[in-house]
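Now for our specimen.

. . .
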Amino acid sequence: MKIGVQLYTVRDETEKDFIGTLEKIAEMGYEGVEFAGYGDLPATELRGHLDRLGLQAAGSHVSLEAMLEDADGQVAAMKTLGGTYLIIPFVDESKREDEAAWIEVFEQLGRISEKCQEAGLQFCYHNHDFELTSHVQGMPALDAMAKHLSSQQLKLELDVCWIQHAGLSPVSYIQQYRQRVPLIHYKDLALAEDGTPLTVELGKGQLPLQAIAAAADQNGVEWLIVEQDECQIGSLDSIRNNRQWIRQHLSL
């Protein structure tokens, strides 16, 4: 498996210096980055910097709305960047209200998937906890989504932190969707005194990270993507510590 980082983690840094942040990420030993926006830079320019730094485009998070409005443009950007995966990061609250809203989302995902498949890209969905606590047709919405859309139409980027927070097993989900999970958001979770979930550096929370990595390795995962929604110290220091933790605890 390859180790990447979700650039949302370092959004404070990319806002100041997008390319300089990529340079620092490459120096830390990450093999790729997962985009969450392109810093208003042309894809051709970004591709040149990725090649110069020896970084791969692990994929890109693109909103459902952006994909519905301009799937062709998003596909073209990812093709230019040399990546494989376009990922819907969430659906907004107005689309989580009832089964009919979810079914509409499933239909929209199916239409977007056709565009990605035609271009030779893989279309994915990234979960939070609400896809596991909301139910559609008697099952968690994420499972209903996976049932409604074939594995050729839709892959899953499992966020192990939010699976755990929903009271379910990340390892079991990786095993359940074997060969359908090319990417994992690899992160750790702790709870604040008031019960609020906190994403923390690897090894400082409650997730069974080594078991998750082993399951990922055994079940066809291509990328472990380091992400922290919020960092307790500087974001660059956090992802540097996370990369070091992986070196020390995983045989990757």
About this structure: The mean pLDDT is 96. The longest helix spans residues 99-118. DSSP finds eleven helices and twelve strands in the chain. The chain has one domain: 2-249.
